[in-house]
Amino acid sequence: MTLSFFDQFMSPSYLGIPLITLALLLPWLLFPTPSSRWLNNRLLTLQGWFINRFTSQLFTPLNQGGHKWALALASLMLFLISLNMLGLLPYTFTPTTQLSMNMGFAVPLWLTTVLIGMRNQPTAALGHLLPEGTPTPLIPVLIIIETISLFIRPLALGVRLTANLTAGHLLIQLIATAAFVLLPLMPTVAILTATLLFLLTLLEIAVAMIQAYVFVLLLSLYLQENV
């Protein structure tokens, strides 16, 4: 019974073909395509308003060079939100519960921000490894600590997204199983458990959106240090 709780995190396959590819391609098919009309429908208007608000809030602290990343980070934000939200539906698979996939997002984007800083302003990029006014005996120790913290950043990005979504899915499944088992024995307790499950599902919807936003926000902060 314990192992069955983790079966939902196994990558499904059909005839030996991993279906995670289909899960990654599906969100792009759900996005409405822009039209050439002066007046769009409500969904397109809401989507455009959301993207404009998100990009303006995210890129206001950045200089003009960092605005080139607006399209990439906004697309990543919508993609992660779609994957996280679709994973809350019954009988679906959530690709963002896989640490390998999240690290595949985090490491290249983090490495790109570091390389941009090394190319555009190498002195300032290396200066982050040693705070100003550091006592001479502490210089080697602080350089090692700051270097380790720099390389931990992509790991923190991937683990944070994976851990939050995995914990939420496990908790939902545990409470749903408890409500199903308690229904014939103690209906009143089962109804209270189902109410708790409903509230937890609402919380997970918020977590799915917040974690996607935090992922992109931290990437923009890393970019802000290097442009």
UniProtKB/TrEMBL annotation:
Gene Ontology CC entries for this record: mitochondrial inner membrane; proton-transporting ATP synthase complex
Catalytic activity: H(+)(in) = H(+)(out)
Transmembrane portions of the chain: 12-31, 69-89, 101-118, 138-159, 171-199, 205-223
Name this protein carries in UniProt: ATP synthase subunit a
InterPro entries: ATP_synth_F0_asu, ATP_synth_F0_asu_AS, ATP_synth_F0_asu_bact/mt, F0_ATP_A_sf
PANTHER family per UniProt: ATP SYNTHASE SUBUNIT A
Subunit structure: Component of the ATP synthase complex composed at least of ATP5F1A/subunit alpha, ATP5F1B/subunit beta, ATP5MC1/subunit c (homooctomer), MT-ATP6/subunit a, MT-ATP8/subunit 8, ATP5ME/subunit e, ATP5MF/subunit f, ATP5MG/subunit g, ATP5MK/subunit k, ATP5MJ/subunit j, ATP5F1C/subunit gamma, ATP5F1D/subunit delta, ATP5F1E/subunit epsilon, ATP5PF/subunit F6, ATP5PB/subunit b, ATP5PD/subunit d, ATP5PO/subunit OSCP.
Family: Belongs to the ATPase A chain family.
Membrane topology reported for the UniProt record: Multi-pass membrane protein
The organism's place on the tree of life at top rank: Eukaryota
Keywords for this protein: ATP synthesis, CF(0), Hydrogen ion transport, Ion transport, Membrane, Mitochondrion, Mitochondrion inner membrane, Transmembrane, Transmembrane helix, Transport
GO MF terms held by the record: proton-transporting ATP synthase activity, rotational mechanism
Compartments in which it is found: Mitochondrion inner membrane
